[in-house]
User: Fold this.
Amino acid sequence: MPHWIEPHPTGIYVRPANAWIDPSVPQERALVTHGHADHARGGHGHVWATEETLAIMALRYGTASGTAVPYGEEIRMNGVTISYVPAGHVLGSAQIVLSHAGERVVVTGDYKRRPDPSCKAFEPVPCDIFVTEATFGLPVFRHPDTGSEVDRLLAALHANPYRCVLVGAYALGKAQRLICELRARGHHDPIHIHGALERMCALYQQFGVDLGDLRLATGLPAKEMRGRIVVSPPSALNDRWSRRLPDPITAMASGWMRVRQRARQRNVELPLVISDHADWDELTDTIREVAPSETWITHGREEALLHWCMTHQFHARALALVGREDEDEG
Amino acid sequence: MRAFSQLLDGLVYTRSRNGKLDLIASYMRSAPDPDRGWALAALTGNLDLKAVKASTIAEMTRARVDPVLFEMSRDYVGDLAETVSLLWPKPVDQPSEIDDGSLTLSAMVDRLHATSRAAAPATLARMMDHLDASGRFALLKLATGGLRVGISARLAKAGFAQGFNLDVDEVEECWHALAPPYTALFAWAEGKSPRPDPAGTPFFRPFMLAHPLEAESVDLNHYAAEWKWDGIRIQIVGTPGETRLYSRAGDDITGSFPDIAQAFRHHAVLDGELLVKGEFQGGQNHGGAAASFNALQQRLGRKAVTAKMMDDYPAFVRLYDILLDADEDLRALPWEQRRTRLETTVPLLDPQRFDISALIEASDFETLADIRAGARDAAIEGVMLKRRDSPYVAGRKAALWYKWKRDPLTADCVMMYAQRGHGKRSSFYSDYTFGCWTEEGELLPVGKAYSGFTDEELKWLDRFVRGNTVNRFGPVREVEKSLVLEVAFDSIHESKRHKSGLAMRFPRIARIRCDKPVHEADTVEGLRRLVI
Assistant:
């Protein structure tokens, strides 16, 4: 292990740069991979991130001092060369690539490998140390083809003209991606969104992601919502909010939906396995592809991925980072 | 196989009973014979493929998947069949995650029937390779016979009946004259042949059940009182040819109690409580000695029973009611008249194996309450109140029969271990082992409970377990001994199963006692004094 990069419970510290990657407590200098709250916290002195991530953080925490780092551009901090490479997770998400003393470290943040019309695709970077997530680090997690999941949603919608389909989707990333995927499958009707998604969808559109005709779900009579798709944050699915909808079919777009009981616990009738995280095959294929001499596993089902690394001759260790969300994110 | 696997998925995700009935009805109408018959057998728990046990599935999986990853996955998912269906790696030349349509449900059943225990893992694996995750789940669930998709046999039959506009009770009446894949049943349902005739073969009649007593009192002029015995409810169906015994759910349990079946040589259908003879309980006051439920447990769930078992735990039946006398159906008669018929029938039976459940004589309800409070017999669960003019009707009908259970006992215990639940609760630590103090100041486990709490309390308990884990043993977590649980239970008995030498009957969590310091929890000695 190189002496210049240190895992701590509250984040990864880059000593020569005196900067923290995705710190969970306020720090003077923070390098942030993407805008999800468990990676991007408020209250840092100065933030280095992509322009999109800075905009998302500004939306959530108000404007803060930040430097936008375009994908592929190199910045230097006291002998450490740093660049941001697309991670394919959500709009603006980046792997942070650090080079120092002849060694290269890649911190993925969260990532996925399959196509996503709402953000740039993951680019593998060969490295010495690969710091990976493991949200879906168990072989039971194999996400099916996204198109076929979206088709199931559309089939349920068309089979029930007097109902609507209410889809729970994480407010940053999943909701916008789902809308893009629906548009790509030829669904151009207005899509209704919960108020909590409004500003984030507008931000995506400002960055050139076309979401089509979006309307707020509030204030319309139930009759007019028949046959429509409504997207809300997962927390609103079984909330009082959804009672005004016309007999909604409750759906949820998440990698967790692969496990039946997970869907049942949320009272989901139409589970859609659509994830913004790498599944088991993507995780293991990526480790093979970047062929690191050491793999650090940040959060998720780290024990299983650790075991896989050991049995496939990859040196690996688990970092116990605090505050990483897991159970309901997806 | 796809139609069936989609039916199972639908049943898992559909919340409403009517929605489930619709799914079953539409499958039963549209699926071909004999697929749908096998599906009906599986949904009603009548498909027993002896070649496949949980260990077969585990063995098959370990041959293809890293055993450590398999165990971790299983611990995470909870359900074995689901775990394997999700992580099953197909050979590279098989279309991934696609059901290629080559395997029908009946072909699958035939292959599993034909396979030997030794060949089962390979047979199963070959079939797994043709299916998608849903299909693999259906296959494994079918092969092990326990579907656990949240529907009862009764609901499956109701769905079937709905599919063909039949009365479910009519289906129930002829059900036990049939065997999978029920081709005669479907032929009748579709109007192609007459109803299968159950006459001559013993078959099950649905039990009459009781509501808990909620009223302050009832008028004993209208209600008769008898003891509620703590055994298992049993129906004895004797025909001139043979005798069969059925449990409350209609399962045939003749094989577990051949001593009873052989002793019954009478043409009648009787309702009673299966008990094991005891030495000291009950006595003459209550009508004969019955041992605690604990003794009966030694005899339950055994497919083969040894002579020694039958000697050590001799079973007998305490009779409550008579449904049929020879071919005469008595169910429409008032209880009082059936009781008279029962009283004339019992003396004709082997007195070693059959007696009548005595009525409790009480002049008024207060007297009855005193008698109930004074009953300390371990085999008594409470009092039954039966309307004197009640016909024998299937299920729970309001105001006819009441059960008036004894108040539960309680003890303050300390949570020691927790384990994840099954099914809907597989992500919650919902099964708790708790203990009481010995004189040496040690905690010894005295029981395990997984009910009694509300959904909110379960969430709280789950958080407590996760936040206070001191050790992990596979799926079990040992917790900081810092939480007192008030445990309610019906009775407590000596038992060799636990180190404390005690076993509770139907323990459940009555209250979470955050307010109580652990050293004030009860002692094992204190609990032992409650043994009756």
DSSP finds 20 helices and 21 strands in chain B. Confidence is low (pLDDT under 50) at residues 280-285 of chain B. The longest strand of chain B covers residues 409-420.
